Amino acid sequence: MQVDLDTLRGFFRSAPFMADLGVEPTAVDPGRVWTRITIEKRHCQHTGVVHAGVIAALADHTMGAAAQTCAADGHWVLTAEFKTSLLRGASGERLECEAWVVKPGRQVSFTEAEVYAVATGGERRLVAKASGTMAVTKQE
Predict the structure, then answer these.
(1) Angle CA(45)–CA(79)–CA(135) in degrees, nearest 5?
(2) 39, 87, 106, 139 - which has most CB atoms within 10 Å?
(3) Domain chopping of the chain, boundaries
(4) CA–CA distance, 104 with 74 (Å, rounded to integer)
(5) Residue 87's closest CA among 113, 121, 123, 120?
(6) Measured between alpha carbons, how far is 100 from 63 in angstroms, rounded to an integer?
(7) Tens of pLDDT, residue by residue, the chain (140 residues)
(8) What is the CATH number of domain 5-138?
(9) Beta-carbon count within 10 A of 32 CB
(10) Segment holding 56, helix H or strand E
(11) What pTM, to 2 d.p., does this model score?
């Protein structure tokens, strides 16, 4: 499926939870998607770092979007399972996620992602790695 950045932005806006979190795609290539989210107080837990659920949701949806770029026309990608490894607390100005397809398939695609916290000065720190199994389903 050929997906350009405008189409991808529409895809993210059509997912209410992603829109509410403020996740925005920044680039797309076949099998690869980049996203970001500006960190706000509502994204943080009681210690001031970004909540793990925000990081996991960012990685999951970005991996799904990467797999969608490899799916045949008339098919949707849905997460079958995913794992997120939190490497350190995330704080700063924004989170950036890069996700890619490790192995595309007609029924199942395997994906990975990395999430970085970006400080005001631009320093990037790897805060999470994720992997996901995406089911490719026929649209009905």
Answers:
(1) 170
(2) 39
(3) 5-138
(4) 16
(5) 113
(6) 6
(7) 678 899 999 989 999 999 999 999 999 999 999 999 999 999 999 999 999 999 999 999 999 999 999 999 999 999 999 999 999 999 999 999 999 999 999 999 999 999 999 999 999 999 999 999 999 999 87
(8) 3.10.129.10
(9) 17
(10) helix 52-68
(11) 0.96
